[in-house]
Specification:
Blueprint: H1 3-37, H2 61-72, H3 78-96, E1 103-105, E2 111-113, E3 122-130, H4 134-146, E4 151-155, H5 157-162, H6 164-172, E5 176-179, H7 192-210, E6 216-217, H8 226-234, E7 238-239, E8 244-245, H9 257-266, E9 272-277, H10 280-295, E10 299-300, E11 306-307, H11 311-316
Helix pairs in contact: 4-10, 7-8, 9-10
């Protein structure tokens, strides 16, 4: 290379070096800026130390995701979410709210309004001697749901002990559980101590199973005395037998749903306290029975609206 050419190339090489150096500086500056904008990694642990996987979670992930969704237009309207939550809470409160006490059971075991402004053309639906079988319970409650009706399922303790899941089923499906003694024996023939045990053991097992003790008591065979009444009172139980017997338990009506319906309608009156049982032919009869009761203008009293008799009603006997 001639000395003249060498002199010409030197300035060009120097210029290239300067340009290259500037390019690297710009790239480094750009990278630094990018790192400053990146989300920092924050080390977090569970209350016991590191998480199970040994990986450190980033508490900012959820907020970044939310921000990204908002920017992309995928977020929902906060006011709409609040309104929806309020509506759900209101619906839940309506479903679980106990109805006002409007009725009581009189000395003839009829359902009676607490005052003249309350509808008296109603019947109370009850089913004794369970819980027996899931199929029958579901069948009865399916029909009750169809007619928007509630009933008392009077249960025996020994059956609950054998099948607590069936008691849970009755509770979960929104029906009411009553106390029908532990062994379904004639309580009037028992000592006061054994009578108390028969009643209070059912209170305990039902509460232990469902979280709520029964509010209603029906003695087996409708057989009781002053002691039976006192024990019921001691446990804040509304005592009742019935005022309308379906006779579904009678062997002559076995497998005869039409006979069950006829028996109820024959005795029908305002405030009828209807005794039925968990039996296949009763399950079969129930839909038609409730349909005919509705056609006759009767409503189905919600057992939760039944409470102790008002003082003036007790003084007057059968208001």
């Amino acid at each position: 290379m001639t000395p003249l050419l060498h002199k010409k190339l030197l300035p060009i090489a120097a210029a290239c070096l300067i340009l290259s150096s500037c390019g690297q500086t710009d790239a480094q500056n750009e990278q630094a800026t990018s790192n400053q904008n990146a989300i920092p990694t924050v080390e977090t642990t569970t209350p016991g130390g590191s998480n199970d996987s040994g990986q450190v979670s980033d508490p900012l992930d959820s907020s970044v995701t939310t921000d990204q969704n908002a920017n992309s237009g995928n977020s929902s309207d906060p006011s709409g979410q609040t309104a929806g939550a309020d509506q759900n809470a209101e619906n839940a409160a309506t479903e679980t709210a106990e109805p006002q006490l409007m009725y009581h059971i009189n000395k003839a075991y009829n359902v009676v309004p607490n005052d003249e402004s309350i509808e008296k053309k109603v019947v109370l639906l009850t089913f004794d001697d369970g819980p027996k079988e899931k199929e029958m319970i579901d069948g009865l409650i399916d029909t009750l749901d169809k007619h928007q009706a509630k009933a008392i399922f009077f249960v025996n303790g020994y059956r609950v002990k054998a099948h607590p899941e069936l008691l849970q089923l009755i509770k979960e499906r929104g029906q009411i559980i009553g106390n029908h003694s532990w062994d379904h024996i004639d309580l009037k023939k028992e000592s006061a101590a054994n009578m108390r045990k028969q009643i209070e053991d059912v209170q305990k097992i039902v509460k232990d199973t469902t979280g709520e003790a029964p509010r209603f008591f029906r003695p087996p065979f409708g057989s009781g005395n002053e002691t039976t009444h006192q024990i019921a009172d001691d446990n804040d139980l509304v005592y009742m037998t019935w005022s309308n017997g379906s006779l579904d338990w009678d062997s002559k009506n076995k497998n005869k749903p039409d006979a069950v319906i006829a028996n109820v309608l024959e005795q029908l009156h305002a405030g009828s306290n209807i005794l039925m049982h968990e039996l296949p032919w009763t399950v079969e009869a129930l839909d038609e029975l409730l349909t005919q009761l509705e056609q006759k203008g009767y409503g189905f009293v919600d057992p939760r609206s039944i409470g102790p008799a008002p003082v003036e009603a007790e003084a007057g006997g059968t208001k």
